[in-house]
Amino acid sequence: MAKDKVITSADVKLWYGDFEALHGINLDFNQNEITALIGPSGCGKSTYLRCLNRMNDLIPGVKIEGDMRLQGEDIYSSQMDVVQLRKRVGMVFQQPNPFPFSIYDNVVYGLRLQGIKDRAVLDEAVETSLKQAAIWDEVKDKLHVSALSLSGGQQQRVVIGRVLAVQPDVILMDEPTSALDPISSTQIENMLLELREQYTIILVTHNMHQASRISDKTAFFLQGRLVEFDDTKKIFLNPHEQETSDYISGRFG
Ligand SMILES: Nc1ncnc2c1ncn2[C@@H]1O[C@H](COP(=O)(O)OP(=O)(O)OP(=O)(O)O)[C@@H](O)[C@H]1O
């Protein structure tokens, strides 16, 4: 049975000034799937990812063309509320970036911005989000200490909790484990497999083992082009394109 498409993108092109970084990307994302974006450094994975919640709007001199839709709504329409969009399409970066506040205040940050003040509602959101982010047991007795006092792996899970608290539809992750040790990385990978039940996840990764272990679909980018997009098994075991095969087998990149 065909799954629902949460995000669709057609003929996405992006220029940084005169430099064309994306050359017409066509890529759709199914609900409750993890899609990995792979490819050598500089091929445009992060640039493409940032198009999906309009993070590139913040960069001067950027021009974007193409059609990108979230649940059918035009992401680049003038009607689109960008604050709402970034709530619906949350983002986790390579370096954990907790705010210099307590764990609790980090997690409820987005909810307070929405005007939610009810302590019971906030408490409930903190517990639920930190459980989903697989860090509740480690921090439940110290919710009011600074998030910056945690290890890198714990900080990244608190940041994921902060993203989950506003109940996004889609979570964008840009190399979320590359700054972490192997145990923390595995914890986050296992958590993503759980989160897939509820969310649609788009993950940029340089880690081929990670892409093959946890993603349903894989998109291989090269020099601003989408070379191949398919089921992860197919991409890793029997890719259609020679360039994909060369990259997967470590012949470049
Ligand atoms: N703010 C920017 N201004 C100008 N050029 C940029 C900017 N950001 C990225 N680029 C260029 O766009 C191209 C794609 O970069 P991008 O960061 O999207 O690649 P990537 O595949 O995510 O790389 P990596 O795996 O190293 O993070 C590169 O040539 C890069 O130098």
UniProtKB/TrEMBL annotation:
Domain ABC transporter: 7-248
Coiled coil as UniProt keyword: no
Cited Pfam families: ABC_tran
GO cellular component assignments: membrane
GO BP, sorted A to Z: phosphate ion transmembrane transport
GO molecular function terms attached to this record: ATP binding; ATP hydrolysis activity; phosphate transmembrane transporter activity
Stored InterPro entries: AAA+_ATPase, ABC_transporter-like_ATP-bd, ABC_transporter-like_CS, P-loop_NTPase, PstB-like
Alphabetic keyword roster: ATP-binding, Nucleotide-binding, Phosphate transport, Transport
Xref: CDD domains: ABC_PstB_phosphate_transporter
Family annotation (NCBIfam families): 3a0107s01c2
Protein name in the entry: ABC-type phosphate transport system, ATPase component
Species this chain originates from: Lacticaseibacillus manihotivorans DSM 13343 = JCM 12514
